[in-house]
Amino acid sequence: MKLYTYYRSQASFRVRIALNLKGLQREDVYLHLEKGDQFAADYKALNPQMVVPTLIDGDVKLFQSLAILEYLDEKYPEPPLLPADPAARAWVRGFALINIADSHPLIVPRIRHYLLEDLKLTQDQLLGWIRHWMGAGLAAMEALLAEHRESGRYCHGDAPTTADIGLVTQVTPAKTFGADLAPYPRVMRIYDSCMAIPAFADAQPAKQPDAE
Fold this sequence. Notes:
Number of helices: 9
Number of strands: 4
Mean pLDDT: 97
Shape: globular
Structural class: alpha+beta
Oligomer: single chain
Helix content: 40-55%
Distance between the termini: 25 Å
Order of helices and strands: EHEHEEHHHHHHH
Radius of gyration: 17 Å
Strand order of the largest sheet: 2-1-3-4
């Protein structure tokens, strides 16, 4: 397997966690998103969206983190990232999508650059934007965990799932941008449980070889 990644990319972080949980080996190819490596012609030919991650597994080319997570879970089913019960699977997917499809897309580098360079927001306004959308997602996660009977050490059940991957990659940028995490005790309890697992801890941005 070959993973095109960037240490600060939360989408790449999700895929690194999943690969680690499943014990799958990979070769990392590092693209520096702030320097524009993703816009190089050879990478554009590989991934026309010019984002990371891209995962190559043999002759299979995959893009978008959630699709990659579900591919890995179907091809390499142990340990599972999704519960067996259909209702539980839908809950786990929905919880993860708060981060993957809602909060995170609003703060990625291309959005931040557009807000600063095209719309001329100040740095303080940009920070307010990031904290607002991170907080909205965290508040929803906290409320869902409070009502979900199967949440405890993890979001659902006794082992980490895709929901936990989404939670961790919601908290990580919130911490990076100085969001107030005190209102989210359930979220932070699960975050701490996950980060005590080497598969999560070793995948975190600060531990990647391209970290700055």
